[in-house]
Specification:
Number of strands: 0
Order of helices and strands: HHH
């Protein structure tokens, strides 16, 4: 629970930036459905499979 809160807090700044909604690795849009399902994510599905 604490880890999840830390991730959400960190992403609050990201969500308020111009980079929000774009994958950190490839720069593609992260679909809203994915952001709603995993609000802490900063990668698209394909890039999330990369370790």
């Amino acid at each position: 629970m604490r880890t999840e809160l830390a991730l959400l807090s960190r992403n609050q700044q990201w969500l308020n930036s111009d980079e929000a909604g774009y994958c950190d690795l490839c720069g593609d849009n992260i679909p809203l459905k994915r952001l709603l399902a995993a609000p802490h994510t900063r990668r698209c599905f394909d890039c999330s499979q990369i370790p």
